[in-house]
Amino acid sequence: MEALISKYIPAGEDRTEFERLLYGASPIELPIVDAARELAAQHKFEIKAYQIPAAIEQRRHRRIVRLALIQNMIAAPTTAPVAEQYKAIEASVAQMLDAAGAMGANIACLQEAWTCPFFFCTREKYPWLEFAEPVDVVRSPSLKFISDMARRHNMVIIAPILERDEVKSDIIWNTAVIVSNSGEIIGKHRKNHIPRVGDFNESTYYMEGDTGHPVFETQFGRIAVNICYGRHHPLNWQMFGLNGAEIVFNPSATVGGLSEPMWPIEGRNAAIANSYFTANINRVGYEEFPNEFTSGDGKAAHKVFGPFYGSSYVAAPDSSRTPGLGRDTNGLLITEVDLNLCRQVRDKWSFPMTARIPDYAKEFAAYVKPNWQPQIIRDQSFQR
What we know:
This protein is α/β, with parallel strands linked by helices.
């Protein structure tokens, strides 16, 4: 999107006004340190850095947190052995986490199912389910790697993986694991909403999660994870806010032609409606699989899934947002935020105070009953 703006709207007053309407208050660009810039140049990933400030208060210290969003494509063909595919992705992500560490990031989030190709389109079980791992830093290759990186950089890392629940019958879940800056696992959240649209046939592998809407209190603030398709459900966003989230991460894997017009809107709307920051991450690239697959939608069978369109960004409760990363390249977005902005916006707009949650609760309770009827008052002066 930013590339189109630069191409078709020349710098000047019109461009400034357009960007004001698109992004809200303009974020401040942050300098990129040499170590991070050199890693980006050497390993061919994009890096951007911004600051979203808050007003200075007299009785509260600033609560500055640096976020790191990482978007990436797979790094080995889907025909390679499973372990080789994972190690190739790990090597790529390691460079971006090192760059995030050099930039002083406090919390990093990877994209949905970051350890593997997005094979859910295929409906095939093997070899793909060999990517599934227990939530255990000793027995999970990816979580051991994440734990080591978290300790090395004093960084909380959100690692969305394919979880195998070995305690409960080897069930598979789409799970985000929150790893502390100490390297220990704080907890996990399982994806609440599962798509059944187009090539996204995810209920072949896992169903809706059973962990509710947890908020994780870390050294750097209270965070939550709304995985991918959950961003289409406003009440999902709201529940994380009601539980006290200050930043909600939305690790995703979504493709152009399906959701791209929604992408720049939904995360920003959620930040505004719930007075918290949202961090929206999407993978990039095309992924080709060995066997053709189809979605029963009349389109020809195909082997290639994509393009995933990247465009990761951070949105703030005051309606501002950062420019996004590119659509087709690995990237790291650093955003420095002041969490005091959450309360400042609540005080200004009074959204929590003016919400009618008790009324909604009554109406939802009535809605789920079998004898529910919609509240429609009909004009009796005309014949239907």
